[in-house]
């Protein structure tokens, strides 16, 4: 069996082509006999049928996910389910799907709603982190790939609408319970976190008052272990070009300048519930109240080592300075036209032993109250909503090491994988490995405490009038929404009470094993306990830390109008809509101007506030042609937009008046940014062969007329900025030079999506119970994300040219087997880097295969019970990165290689 991501991805693509061929092959037979037997289905097959019906009946171009039953979506996470839809791809964060790219555009381009209401984010920008929404308590998801005037909060790439159950849609009382045990195949990597976890969920739905009042309640508890084996090359360089050749390094060779090796574990606990009250006392009034709550608590432990290996570094101790770091017995390999040092011995190293302890708490609330009044042909609706998200984090890192320098044998591969390292001395001996700043970072330890809050308040009024004839209905409405996102970032330095302390035995754990990278055992201790016993802490902020603080406020008024039509022309049923949105946005940001702030000095006293208001008109035309034989053609032409990222809108800056030129200069965020805007056209053809079987192909083209990238602006308006040195009035103009994100020329994003769903009955009754669903997407762009004329290989963040999915299943007589594989080609990923800064890296192609086995009891005393066994990441697919061309360094040199293991779950569901 071929397990490489590239090979398996190609295999998926070939499978899709084969499926398309099979579809054409069965058409003659279907033409002769249209009497396909109707069968009663349940489970995953029922989920596919429901999703197919939503896709077929929608006026918009949508993809859908539906629960197999109450409390049972097809996957264990919403993000995994979304990643299986055509044109959608998930980015793994710490081994699990978290954020979603739609049609090659990063999560910041997508909108996310919960029951149609715009949602806050626990992340540092707009992109919603879907691990906050457990699959067990949602009834489904609809992804709108095209715009619609009545969808408020829509994204430029698409909109994900998460849905909870509506109790009056159910017949009678529904009660379901599920429990699963979880195990990480990597076992005990750290002393603090067990490889075992558990999940359980409860769903209750009922109706009262002669089915006029309904209640739906869902609760989900997650206690999930995370385990990781991690290696990362910091950077590669040929320092000969900089006039600093390294002793022992072959001439003109690129060498690794630093690296890290560690194990990391997390204890992740999340409790979530959703409650819906639905009241419909008569045919006129229909009221729905939704409440959602999620509390996510994470504790993370890291034990490992890292070291600088560049020729610029040398170490001193006890009055003796060692020679600069060099190497011996160096050997090279050719890689992409470069000569890389891949083996040898580093000399004069002083690795740091790192023991980190991090915590994170996310709390999310959402409440919405919708009242609909039906007066025959006229319907009016009022909706008020509120949602907020709070995140508080603490990152603690403490350093230890040997005071003397040492050497290390190394063999590093030319592609991302674990190295072979052999230090000349032990780093597990508590007598020789002591607490101190081994790498000369200027502090003995560091504690970062970022916090943030995101709040959305909204009120919406709309009405709909039904006509008879060509115009089916007219919809008018307005939505007013305020959003405020704020972030605060505090940094503390830890200083030892007594230098070079040895860790007492009561705070030591047995050494952590890093033999997967050849390093061997390394000193491991209780980080919170050591911090309290051996260190003093004090606030010590740099200008870069102060610039992470910001507050962004938005007031958005959206009015919309939509005319829905339907008619018949030459036997073809036509329906669709014409309409648009008129949007006024008023944005403002306040933050610090940190020009001249000294590390560890007093807080900046000068605040900056700036903003902008603007209008947008977003028209759209939607045409659906139903040919009556299961074939549907859809065309959508629209103008779309996405507001700038929050961190780009921040007013945080370092700006001052140059007294020589009497002119403003600075750099920072830009509160006056305009949105990303695009003109889009979508065309799709869908053919529904029979219930459970269809084929679809869609093409799209988005012309981004505006894109945001970092620029040097020579006539930036510094109105609202105050010189911290009191020189504001000395500038001859409010205009000056500013390096900041700014709007510039965009480009196109275009692509093709092919998807199919086949039921085994379509081919032969002998295949009853078998089926598959699959998709393949190809996306391309002309946009240079760093600006016109920049690196040709730097691509849009989140854009994989090829994304594919293949799911094969069998369901019959209570038995179920499902194997699913998702693939995405390499892409430019945006990740959290050093000190929580956002950085780019090139994430290589990956394919992940999941397995599910189950049995539903269909009679007897166990009727209503089902057993399920799951293995996620069946082949232990690694996470691999290489240097991104945007860094200016040689591209595609190997960087990161992580293994997360297999996630194994065994559980039971019971429904009354």
From TrEMBL:
Subcellular location: Cell outer membrane
InterPro entries (UniProt xref): Beta-barrel_TonB_sf, Plug_dom, Plug_dom_sf, TonB_rcpt_bac
Location of the TonB-dependent receptor plug domain: 56-158
GO cellular component: cell outer membrane
Signal sequence, start to end: 1-31
Keyword Signal: yes
SUPFAM superfamilies assigned to the protein according to its UniProt record, in alphabetical order: Porins (SSF56935)
Alphabetically ordered keywords of this record: Cell outer membrane, Membrane, Receptor, Signal
Gene3D superfamilies: TonB-dependent receptor, beta-barrel domain, TonB-dependent receptor, plug domain
Highest rank taxon of the organism: Bacteria
NCBIfam families with a match to the protein in the record: TonB-Xanth-Caul
Protein name: Iron complex outermembrane receptor protein
Annotated organism of origin: Rhizomicrobium palustre
């Amino acid at each position: 069996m071929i397990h490489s991501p590239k090979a398996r991805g190609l295999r998926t693509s070939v499978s899709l082509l084969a499926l398309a061929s099979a579809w054409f092959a069965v058409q003659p037979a279907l033409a002769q006999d249209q009497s396909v037997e109707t069968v009663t289905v349940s489970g995953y097959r029922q989920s596919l049928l429901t999703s197919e019906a939503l896709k077929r009946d929608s006026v918009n171009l949508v993809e859908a996910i539906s629960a197999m039953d109450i409390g049972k979506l097809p996957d264990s996470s919403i993000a995994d389910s979304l990643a299986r839809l055509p044109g959608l791809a998930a980015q793994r964060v710490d081994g699990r799907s978290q954020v979603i790219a739609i049609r090659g555009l990063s999560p910041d381009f997508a909108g996310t709603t919960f029951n149609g209401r715009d949602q806050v984010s626990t992340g540092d920008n707009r992109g919603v982190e879907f691990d906050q929404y457990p699959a067990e308590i949602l009834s489904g998801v609809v992804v709108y790939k095209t715009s619609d005037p009545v969808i408020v909060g829509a994204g430029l790439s698409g909109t994900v609408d998460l849905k909870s159950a509506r109790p009056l849609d159910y017949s009678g009382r529904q009660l379901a319970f599920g429990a699963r045990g979880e195990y990480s195949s990597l076992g005990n990597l750290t002393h603090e976190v067990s490889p075992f976890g558990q999940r359980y969920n409860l769903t209750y739905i009922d109706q009262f008052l002669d089915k006029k009042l309904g209640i739906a309640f869902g609760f989900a508890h997650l206690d999930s272990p995370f385990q990781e084996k991690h290696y990362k090359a910091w950077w590669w360089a040929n320092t000969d070009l900089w006039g600093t050749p390294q002793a022992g390094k072959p001439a003109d060779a690129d060498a690794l300048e630093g690296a890290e090796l560690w194990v990391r574990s997390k204890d992740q606990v999340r409790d979530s519930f959703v409650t819906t009250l639905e009241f419909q006392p008569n045919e006129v009034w229909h009221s729905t109240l939704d409440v959602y709550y999620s509390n996510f608590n994470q504790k993370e432990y890291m034990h490992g080592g890292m070291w600088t290996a560049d020729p610029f570094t040398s170490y001193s101790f006890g009055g003796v300075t060692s020679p600069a770091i060099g190497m011996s017995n160096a050997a090279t390999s050719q890689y992409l036209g470069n000569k890389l040092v891949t083996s040898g011995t580093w000399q004069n190293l002083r690795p740091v032993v790192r023991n980190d302890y991090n915590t994170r708490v996310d709390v999310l609330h959402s409440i919405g109250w919708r009242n609909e009044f039906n007066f025959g042909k006229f319907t009016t609706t009022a909706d008020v909503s509120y949602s907020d998200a709070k995140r508080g984090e603490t990152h603690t890192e403490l350093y230890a090491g040997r005071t003397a320098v040492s050497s290390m044998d190394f063999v590093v591969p030319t592609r991302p994988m674990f190295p072979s390292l052999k230090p000349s001395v032990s780093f597990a001996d508590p007598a020789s490995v002591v607490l101190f700043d081994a790498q000369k970072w200027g502090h003995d330890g560091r504690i970062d405490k970022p916090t943030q809050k995101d709040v959305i308040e909204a009120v919406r009024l709309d009405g709909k009038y039904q006509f008879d004839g060509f115009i089916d209905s007219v919809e008018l409405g307005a939505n007013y929404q305020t959003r405020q996102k704020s972030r605060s970032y505090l940094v503390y330095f830890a200083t030892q009470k007594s230098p070079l302390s040895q860790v007492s035995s009561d705070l030591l754990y047995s050494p952590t094993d890093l033999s997967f990278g050849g390093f061997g055992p390394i000193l491991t201790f209780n980080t919170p306990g050591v911090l309290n016993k051996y260190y003093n802490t004090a606030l010590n902020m740099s200008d870069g830390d102060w610039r992470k603080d910001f507050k962004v406020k938005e007031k958005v008024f959206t009015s919309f109008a939509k005319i829905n039509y339907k008619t018949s022309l030459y036997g073809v049923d036509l329906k669709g809509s014409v309409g648009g949105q008129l949007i006024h946005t008023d944005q403002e940001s306040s933050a610090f101007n940190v020009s001249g702030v000294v590390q560890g000095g007093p807080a900046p006293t000068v605040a900056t506030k700036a903003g902008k208001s603007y209008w947008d008109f977003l028209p759209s035309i939607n045409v659906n042609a139903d040919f009556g034989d299961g074939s549907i053609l859809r065309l959508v032409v629209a103008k779309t937009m996405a507001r700038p990222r929050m961190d780009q809108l921040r007013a945080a800056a370092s700006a001052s008046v140059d007294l020589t030129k009497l002119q403003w200069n600075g750099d920072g965020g830009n509160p006056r940014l305009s949105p990303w805007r695009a003109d889009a056209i979508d065309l799709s053809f869908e053919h529904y062969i029979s219930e459970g079987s269809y084929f679809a192909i869609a093409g799209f083209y988005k012309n981004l007329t505006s894109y945001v990238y970092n620029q040097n602006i020579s006539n930036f308006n510094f109105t609202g900025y105050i010189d911290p040195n009191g020189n504001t009035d000395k500038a001859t103009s409010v205009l000056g030079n500013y390096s900041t994100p700014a709007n510039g020329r965009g480009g196109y994003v275009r692509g093709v999506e092919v998807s199919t769903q086949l039921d085994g009955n379509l081919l032969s009754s002998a295949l009853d119970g078998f089926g598959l669903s699959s998709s393949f997407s190809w996306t391309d762009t002309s946009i240079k994300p760093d600006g016109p004329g920049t690196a040709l290989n730097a691509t849009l963040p989140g854009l994989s040219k090829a994304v594919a999915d293949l799911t094969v299943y069998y369901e019959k007589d209570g038995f179920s087997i499902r194997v699913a594989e998702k693939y995405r080609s390499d892409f430019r990923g945006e990740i959290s880097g050093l000190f929580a800064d956002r950085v780019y890296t090139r994430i290589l192609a990956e394919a992940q295969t999941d397995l599910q086995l189950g049995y539903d009891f269909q009679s007897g005393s166990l009727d209503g019970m089902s057993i399920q066994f799951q293995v996620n990441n069946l082949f232990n697919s690694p996470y691999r990165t290489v240097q991104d061309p945007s860094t200016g360094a040689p591209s595609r040199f190997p960087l990161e290689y992580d293994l997360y293991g297999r996630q194994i779950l065994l559980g039971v569901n019971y429904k009354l």
